[in-house]
# Entry
Amino acid sequence: MSAFSAVRILFPPVVAARSAGEKPSAPFLPSLAVPGLTRSPLRAPRLGRPLLAVSSDVLSGQKPLGSNSSPSSHAAVSREEALVLYEDMVLGRVFEDMCAQMYYRGKMFGFVHLYNGQEAVSTGFIKLLEATDSVVSTYRDHVHAVSKGVPARAVMAELFGKTTGCCRGQGGSMHMFSSTHNLLGGFAFIGEGIPVATGAAFSSKYRHEVLKQSNPKGLDVTVAFFGDGTCNNGQFFECLNMAQLWKLPIIFVVENNLWAIGMSHLRATSDPEIWKKGPAFGMPGVHVDGMDVLKVREVAMEAIGRARRGEGPTLVECETYRFRGHSLADPDELRKAGKLEILFI
Amino acid sequence: MLRVLRQKVGCGASPAMIFGQALQKVLPAGSVLPRKYSSAAKEMNVREALNSALDEEMSADPKVFLMGEEVGEYQGAYKISKGLLEKYGPDRVLDTPITEAGFTGIGVGAAYYGLRPVVEFMTFNFSMQAIDHIINSAAKSNYMSAGQISVPIVFRGPNGAAAGVGAQHSQCFAAWYAHVPGLKVLTPYSAEDARGLLKAAIRDPDPVVFLENELLYGESFPVSAEVLDSSFCLPIGKAKIEREGKHVTITAYSKMVGYALQAAEILSKEGISAEIINLRSIRPLDRATINASVRKTNRLVTVEEGFPQHGVGAEICMSVVEESFEYLDAPVERIAGADVPMPYAANLERMAVPQVDDIVRAAKRACYRSVPMAAAA
# Structure
């Protein structure tokens, strides 16, 4: 039984009343102080504050497993599940590091955008998905592919342009596709994947309602990953509207790493709190610490559950950070010049 | 024009400061950019040419402003706008969010009201997100308003294939934009082209699509003192004969001009003298120069990087058939990119883009007809 069964999902009017100074905690999680989910740098008007990524204190909270009496801050994970998460994140990190090494040795070419630092988001969401659920990504898609089950060897071969690659060397780094694993790309244009993902969610609902293909688990869910820069793009808003209008089984996951190449999120966005854009369209908007896989997973479980039950879309803003430049060709001077520091506890 | 520049420079500063860091790589440290007609051959790469043209036009006319992604603090995604933010400030060099449709529309609207925007697309592939504004708001407005509204806007950025960037980053849009009445479409090749055509584009009262090439940015070309002068400008709609010849005309634009020139070298060793035309302007197309050349050589090879169907070569061929049919001694040869989305793998990419050998073989086919033509697909 979910720890959230007693919780009513709070819809837009409640959230909109929240003042700018308050902590943007997830509206559909119990409104307790979620320990560890702290200090969004977005509240600072300028980039003067250090960005802190705080590790999860799930286990230090020492709540007994399965207790429902107090709203526990995280659903506990079993040892096996934790190992799966750990392995997936380590694989993602090691994979990307190897890409960097190959690129700087001149064996990999073109545009290569690495995911170092953001592994918790990919693992937290994708490891909860079934094989029939789909994932749509951007050019920063290697780790999404690997998490979704595309063999790392096939992804690496693709990056080398080999016929053994998942797209026979025709797609490349930014265009990972796998119909077996329902990885629907890999898109170079930001925002491009969002309507595609919304369409996949549409087809899931259509199959269920029009073609009467029922799945005892519920609707097949689509997860769309994109960045903070994309949230200023028109396609994003168009799809938020239609997904909510038609109650599509989709989760919009914003990997907010605060930078779009060299453009800081704060310089580009009138209201930097992206989660607020969900309620503007009638869906829940959730903010989560994207550096903490257990917190991400917790939010993901709720959002995926909603989608499967046909309750519609969710917008999840994961605050995260990329440790490397936008791509391996990016000199990344603007971030280093700033006052951002990352501390890991 | 020079007076304005000298004021910017201030006393004591060398004229080299005008070009700032852009020319540091070209000039040894401490040397002065010759303002008078010097006998020394000067070289400039395309990046510096574009940067200097933007700088000079922004300096000459305060209504000119630049906007696009990463044009300011990042110094330009390909460093074309390096130094401009420091010089002109954030009101004239605007870093936009990633909203092509939005900021292109804003640029067009600004042009309606008398400003002269230069809108940069990180690559022209991204212009597809804004194409409604380029075509419907910019290109057609002068006509729809019966001349009341003019749209002095420039859309610029890299076009065509780079290296290993995949299908969505590699398309050539020359034929797409040249299809539309109301637009001017320019394709510079050399540093001289880049400077002269960009200045002409910024001064032009109509919307201009300015298609650069990422792989050409770092290439250096000799430039005369005339080219370096701030009043230098090239006419829109005039092609340039890069190399004169007698036996076959080869038309090309952008990066393919370089390939055609290499092909001409190879052909000359085999006794075929090729005339290379650098189109410079796809719309309006310099039909007069092309036809005059074909009437002289009687054979034509068109070269482009983009997809073959409905491409630039198809239009050139038709122009020649319409005006100079009796002068043709052989069918027109068309060299274009392969009719397939650009593959990622390096060996496939090489096969998908025309190479110098393809141009040489086509010229030979046009001249001897010794190699039988492949059956049409």
